[in-house]
Design goal:
Layout: E1 2-5, H1 11-22, H2 32-39, E2 51-55, E3 58-72, E4 77-88, H3 97-111, E5 116-120, H4 123-126, E6 132-133, E7 139-141, E8 153-157, E9 168-170, H5 178-181, H6 183-190, E10 207-208, E11 215-216, E12 222-224, E13 230-235, E14 239-240, E15 243-244, H7 250-258, H8 261-265, H9 274-284, H10 289-292
Parallel strand pairs: 7-9
Antiparallel strand pairs: 1-2, 2-3, 3-4, 3-9, 5-8, 6-8, 10-11, 12-13, 14-15
Length: about 300
């Protein structure tokens, strides 16, 4: 086994690896390979922590790191760092390679003077590398109440006491949402890879229509593209044959969806009023792909890497 810095000649192979590692894991398809592709030109990308792992001359793993910030209570930014995607080829998963790659990269990060790592992930895996929930260090996750413990928002101090006396909020760097921000560019990039079938699978993160917020759990819930294929971004009530079925504004969509508050209440422990539902949608809808360009938002939904 060998771990070394990624080189330009590795780029396409590593993007293929990343695509294979994440395909249909957290959602139908994946975007992590495009995130990596674009991040290499991002000023927050840390080239000294861009590693590949080889076994018998074959690249089987990769991890990248990025600069990030914690926004303090007074509005100023405090330096932080994050990492991911971290990818292991499916043939080598659950054999300890991921933890070896992660631990190696963390040691190199320490040598560079990095003070803390913040990230979204599964505590059951990352605890083996010394991560714990970030709320224990008074670092909060964007969009969540400060008093809440977000089980997937994790932290590890690399310099002991680096966060002493610090309290603030972490926003996932916007570079991780490049596919959502540039859907046409992402589609063109994805088309350069061999075709793979997107599919819903048990254990994926919840998927919602990027127009009305309706949960999507099976192909029958989804809209269709112009060629008749499944579109996993939009529901069948919003999108058909490559076009939206309603020519409306975001506010008009909210008014339309508010009519179904009684259906929503069937799945809630405590019912909400129509006005409360509309208030929730006014906060949530600007994050959806259809409305994001028209209504800029200050934070994005997270993706567990």
């Amino acid at each position: 086994m060998n771990i070394r810095l990624e080189e330009p000649k590795d780029y396409r192979e590593v993007e293929n690896l990343t695509r294979e590692a994440f395909w249909n894991i957290y959602c139908p398809g994946c975007t992590e390979h495009y995130v990596l592709h674009k991040y290499r030109e991002n000023p927050d990308f840390i080239r000294e922590l861009d590693f590949v792992m080889e076994e018998n001359g074959k690249i089987i793993g990769h991890v990248m790191y990025s600069k990030a910030v914690i926004t303090l209570e007074n509005g100023t930014d405090f330096p932080a760092w994050t990492f991911g995607p971290i990818s292991i080829h499916p043939d080598y998963k659950r054999k300890g390679y991921g933890l070896k790659l992660l631990n190696y990269s963390i040691e190199r990060a320490k040598e560079l003077g990095i003070g803390v790592l913040l990230m979204e992930g599964n505590i059951e895996f990352y605890k083996h590398a010394g991560f714990d929930v970030a709320s224990k260090l008074n670092i909060h996750y964007h969009g969540e109440p400060k008093e809440s413990v977000v089980p997937y928002f994790l932290a590890k101090e690399l310099i002991p006491g680096y966060l002493h006396g610090i309290e603030g909020t972490y926003n996932t760097p916007e570079g991780y949402f490049v596919a959502e921000e540039n859907p046409d560019e992402f589609s063109a990039f994805e088309a350069t890879f061999p075709a793979k079938k997107k599919a819903f699978r048990e254990g994926q993160l919840p998927v919602f229509c990027q127009s009305c917020g309706m949960p999507l759990g099976k192909d029958e819930d989804c809209g269709t593209n112009a060629d008749g294929s499944i579109n996993h971004d939009y529901c069948r009530y919003c999108f058909k044959d490559g076009r939206f079925l309603q020519d409306c504004t975001m506010d008009e969509m909210i008014e339309h969806c508010a009519r179904f508050v009684d259906e929503v209440n069937k799945d809630l422990p405590s019912p909400i009023t129509k006005e409360q539902y509309k208030d929730q949608m006014r906060q949530y809808f600007p994050l959806l792909k259809r409305w994001r360009k028209a209504t800029p938002s200050s934070f994005m939904l997270n993706t567990v890497k």
